[in-house]
Each structure stands twice: as structure tokens, then as C-alpha cells.
Specification:
Length: 392
């Protein structure tokens, strides 16, 4: 279904869409197989009711093929519910609109009642839909007996069979939707864990940056002070160290902004965190500060891309090369992760590969001005391109 789909229910919405389309084709096949019966019985019914009966029993469920494919999910579910209600109402009213005393065959509705049954299970997803199956016993039995004038035994048997068949398809529909819902819940938990881990990695990178300042500036100042306690060099080193420490808590840093050099350092740290043998190249001609949320998103996605390359790219013979290229100008940052590994089909990413879906694609898409593209083919390696463009 097109339109907005809640990320928390992506699998459930997907299986509902597939089932709606399958049901639509089933209704289309039914209509084709029963054209002769439907045509003959139209002459035994009130004209307006007869055509409405064809519409609700064949046209409405068949149109789910198109509705489920192109309409927003909320409209599709409402349309499916209307299909069930309209079918049940028309079925119950059959005897009221007959223009003959008896018909030769049972109403065509009796042959298709399993279709609205599974539609009810798929769209309402509640145990009360079992009552729809139970209701088929009296509804089918009464309609068949009084429309054909046949024996009660045969009518009741038809009702029992209709109830059983409707119950089977309702059970299948509920089970499929419940399984998809479980997958959504597991994916949501995994996304939450991934977010927590990403936050922890961000804190670790920030701590590493602070430790680097202490190591490079403060310790060097102390070393100079130990060697030349009263020289001008001591004052210069001390001033530089204090200035660098102060820069950690300047307004820009408090607002979560990084200097271009700081961005390069953060991205290099993200690559190091992922482990493995990875070359790191960068071109930096930027002068403007970069928002902290941009650096955080790029770092998380970059680290995940490198980890995926190491984990799934294959390097049994040690010949797979991995390279990270960072290009920075004032309003654009592009990060490319290239490897010569085994590659894969991006269109066939399993739902369980949350690292790619959540930590790379969704993470960058959630960033204002961010995007991620994965270019890979089996046996041809993989290129992951992360891009951020300043929007204001």
C-alpha cells in the first residue's frame, strides 16, 4: 500500500497488502467460474438487489487488487471492512428479494463466503471474527433451505461445511498477520537496542576526543614544564593547552557543532571502532562548523557500514580491500565505504539485517539533508555512499 506506513507495523502492513491482493484475485477467479450461475440467478431476484449483490460479492473483493496496491493503508483497511459488511448484509437479505418461490441451485453467495471471512480476519485481527465463521451455519442453512426448498439435512450439512471452511481461512489469516506483528515487535526491540548502542559509541568517541586533547596538549605542556620550568616555551604550551581545553566547552561545542577537522577525527574514530584493516582517505576544504547531529549520524552509519563489510564481505584469503573516502566542502559531506568483497543484492536484504536497514539507511534518512545509497552486486564488491547536504 502506498502512503505513510508506520515503521512499527511495516511487516504487518506488508502481509496484509499481499493477502488483500491474493483475495482480490481469488474473487476474480470465482466470478469467472460462476458467470453462468450468476447470470441465471439474476432473473430470479429483484433487479436492483441482483446487481448490488454482484457488486458486493464479486466487484468489491476483486477491486482489492487495485485498492491494496495504490491506496493509503487506512483507506484500504476501511474498504476491506466495508466489503465484509456489505457481503454479509446482502447474503442475509437474499430471501427477501427473491422473485420466484424456489431456485434450482443454492445462491452463488454460498460458494464465496470464505472470501469475506479471510478479509475479516486480515483487517480486524481480533478473535471475535471467529463469530463470522459460526454465523455461517445458520445463515447458509436457512438461505439454502428456503431458497431451494431442499431437505433440512442437506441445508444443515452445507452450513456446517461453510462454517468449517470459513473457520480454516480465518485461522490462517489471523496466524499470518500475528506472525508479521511479532516480527514488527522484534524489529522494534532491535532498533531500540541499536539506538542505545549507537549512543554509547558516540559517548565513547567523544571521550576518545577528550583523551586525545589531554594526551596531545596537556601532557606535552607538562613535559616541557618539567624540562624547562621557567622558559617562554612553557607559557606557550600551557596557553595552547588551556585554549584547546576551553574549545571543548565553547558555545559551538555546547550547541553540538564540530569544526571540519573535528569531523574528520570523529569519522576516523568511527572507522577505528569498527576494527579490521581499512584505509582512510579524506579531502577537506570546508570552513564552516558542522552540526553535531550530522557528525553523530554519519559516524554511526559509517561504523555500521564498515562492520557489515568486515562481517559479510568475506575475507578468507585476506585479499579483500576496504577503503573509506571522506570529501568535505562547506555545505556537503560525502562518505564512501568501498570494498572488493563478495557483494550482495541490495533488493534482497533480509528483514533481519537491521544493521543495514536501521543503522545505515533509516539513520541517514532521518537526518535533515541526509541520504544513503548502497551499490552492490554479488561478486562485484560493495559501495556505500553516505551524503549530507546543508539545507539552511
Amino acid at each position: 500500500m502506498t502512503g505513510h506506513v508506520d515503521q512499527l507495523h511495516m511487516a504487518r502492513e506488508g502481509i496484509q497488502r499481499v493477502l488483500y491482493i491474493a483475495i482480490g484475485f481469488a474473487a476474480l477467479i470465482f466470478g469467472g467460474l460462476h458467470v453462468e450461475l450468476i447470470t441465471s440467478q439474476l432473473g430470479e431476484l429483484n433487479t436492483v438487489y441482483g446487481y448490488l449483490a454482484v457488486f458486493v460479492s464479486v466487484v468489491m473483493p476483486t477491486s482489492l487488487i487495485v485498492v491494496a496496491r495504490f491506496a493509503p493503508s487506512r483507506f484500504t483497511h476501511a474498504y476491506a471492512k466495508a466489503t465484509v459488511i456489505a457481503f454479509a448484509t446482502a447474503h442475509a437479505a437474499w430471501l427477501l428479494f427473491m422473485t420466484v418461490e424456489f431456485t434450482e441451485h443454492a445462491p452463488w453467495f454460498q460458494s464465496i463466503n470464505a472470501i469475506p471471512a479471510i478479509v475479516a480476519a486480515v483487517t480486524w485481527r481480533h478473535r471475535w471474527v471467529w463469530w463470522y465463521a459460526f454465523a455461517q451455519l445458520p445463515l447458509v442453512a436457512l438461505t439454502e433451505h428456503y431458497s431451494t426448498g431442499g431437505a433440512w439435512r442437506d441445508a444443515v450439512l452445507s452450513g456446517v461445511l461453510a462454517m468449517m471452511f470459513s473457520g480454516i481461512v480465518i485461522g490462517v489469516g489471523l496466524a499470518l498477520v500475528a506472525a508479521a506483528q511479532t516480527q514488527d515487535e522484534v524489529a522494534a526491540e532491535a532498533r531500540e537496542r541499536a539506538a542505545v548502542e549507537a549512543s554509547e559509541r558516540t559517548r565513547e568517541r567523544e571521550q576518545a576526543r577528550i583523551n586525545g586533547v589531554v594526551r596531545d596538549e596537556v601532557m606535552s605542556a607538562l613535559v616541557v614544564a618539567g624540562r624547562e620550568p621557567y622558559s617562554a616555551r612553557v607559557a606557550a604550551h600551557a596557553e595552547a593547552a588551556l585554549s584547546r581545553i576551553a574549545s571543548l566547552t565553547t558555545d559551538d561545542e555546547a550547541q553540538g557543532e564540530y569544526s571540519p577537522v573535528g569531523v574528520i577525527a570523529a569519522l576516523r574514530s568511527a572507522v577505528d571502532d569498527a576494527g579490521g584493516r581499512v584505509e582512510f582517505w579524506h579531502t577537506n576544504v570546508a570552513r564552516k562548523a558542522i552540526p553535531g547531529e550530522v557528525v553523530e549520524a554519519l559516524s554511526e552509519a559509517l561504523s555500521e557500514a564498515v562492520r557489515n563489510s568486515i562481517r559479510h564481505g568475506g575475507d578468507e584469503d585476506g585479499l579483500v580491500s576496504r577503503l573509506v573516502r571522506v570529501t568535505m566542502i562547506d555545505d556537503v559531506i560525502q562518505v564512501r565505504v568501498e570494498d572488493s568483497g563478495r557483494g550482495f543484492n541490495p533488493n534482497a536484504i533480509p528483514a533481519r539485517r537491521l544493521g543495514i536497514r536501521v543503522s545505515i539507511l533509516k539513520r541517514m534518512q532521518s537526518l535533515n539533508g541526509g541520504s544513503a545509497v548502497i551499490d552492490s552486486r554479488p561478486g562485484r564488491g560493495t559501495v556505500v555512499t553516505l551524503t549530507w547536504k546543508r539545507t539552511s
